[in-house]
Write a structure and sequence with these properties.
The chain has 14 helices and 20 strands. The chain is of the alpha+beta class.
Amino acid sequence: MDNFSRPHSAGRRPNGNRQTVDGFMARPSAAPLTPKAAQYKPTASQINPQRHRVDEFKRAEGFHAAGRRNLHPVQPAASHAQAHPKPAFASNVDLTTPATKKSRKKAQAKHGKFYTFRKWGLRTAGISLVLVLAAGGLLFGKGYIKLHKVFQGGSRAASLTANVDPTLLKGEGDGRINVLLLGVGGAQHDGGDLTDTLMVASVDPVNNQAVLLSIPRDLWTKMPNNYIANYQKINAAYESGKYKYLGKQDRSNADHKAVLAGFDGIDSTIERVAGIPIHYNMLVDFQAFSQAVDTVGGVTINAPEKLYDPTMAWENKWNPTLAVQGVNNFDGKHALMYARSRETTSDFARGERQRQLLVALKEKTANMGTLTNPMKLSGLLSAFGDNVQSDISISDMTRMASIMKKIPSNQILSVSLAEEGNSFVTTGNINGMSVVMPKAGLEDYSKIQEYIRSKLKDGYIAKENANITILNGSGVAGLATEKATELKSYGYNVGVVDNAPTEDYATTRIVDMTRGSKKYTLNYLKKRLAVDATTTQLPTGILAGNANIVIILGSDASETAQN
């Protein structure tokens, strides 16, 4: 299990844990949770292994002049005016002809239309410019207010900083930026706080890569507290934390501290299941997602197969076909149906469709220049309003946006826990409810964590790619092999695994043959192996070979492993 601890900053969240790109929601499978819901961890006899299908401003909008100026042209000195007679206008007037009243009238008669056109043209351009500037200022004001309403966070992922100090990285995985995307129905829907979409958008800012990881909404797991139930589906963890803070069930998100308490609840649960740190959260409801898709002009999806769902036909003009096999152009309403449907497929298939929609929305946003188009950006912000909650600061969001622009869509990996050849969960039945459980057994997430780590490798470890030799000097048989397997699961490049010449090492040593050039890898290894310092000198009888780092395991490594 990863030893990630949350940063403690005053004022971040109600429990003091931390300082303060779209989710989707599926139709809730059950009514809002009540104390009558299942509240216990089932015994083996209660589990049926039978598989189941799985803007508001007080000032009126517009331009408001700060005041009027008394603008009068400065009169030229008499001598200057006599020396340089000024023509009535700069058209084709003979400047050698004295500017008499007769000549001026003649010129004006000849060029009057042009003079009038130019005068009003300049006035119109001036007025247009003022209106554009006023509208831009208004848009900025609205945008600024809405941005601050949505992005209220204060914490940040250390890896968002270029050339971050390695000591600020708490452990493997902190070299990525993990954003938990939560999709809910919203206050107008029954079960509106059930996060029926749980997806981790994991960004590697070092190597410009990203992964979308879906967590099954029906995963039966221990809740962050026992407000509603001790055990429930994982989609209840957010509302459990939120309702515990409020002391009541309230589907509105008017209390931001309650939202943050909900984030804490779901974060702690996801971290325990997936074994990765969650740095940020974004919660989106039906309306925000649908309007966001419409704002960018819809999305294009290449469906691998026809999606047929009679239970949603009433939303599709009584047409049960929600998508045809091949290319589909979806507006917000149809994109939402595509994301929600699972009646005729499965929750796992729906997760794949949701990841597909996120990539399509990201691609459309980039191609349409939404973030640089004031009207489209205003539309997106209006779509957010009260329909999006997050704990991301504006500066962090801006930084993440700049990173995502560098990542091609084909470099975004889609990961599920129930893929063909890599399935780590199964379905079962608990008190009449269809649930998802780890194949290894309830609350055994070891294989799931190992698989997720292999897909979400730490960016710094991957970039440095240090060649590591592990030698067993503890006298405990098999310890080197055990440590090698553990390090490999975190993405380390382990080469030679062998016994040390002697078995009398009481403490573990890390020998750095690169003299500090692999600083991130060294930092992680020191924390994982509980080694305070490294050395550049190998003990007598040990050769480094091609290794950049040599680890000599002492008997303390065996004690650490047992703890």
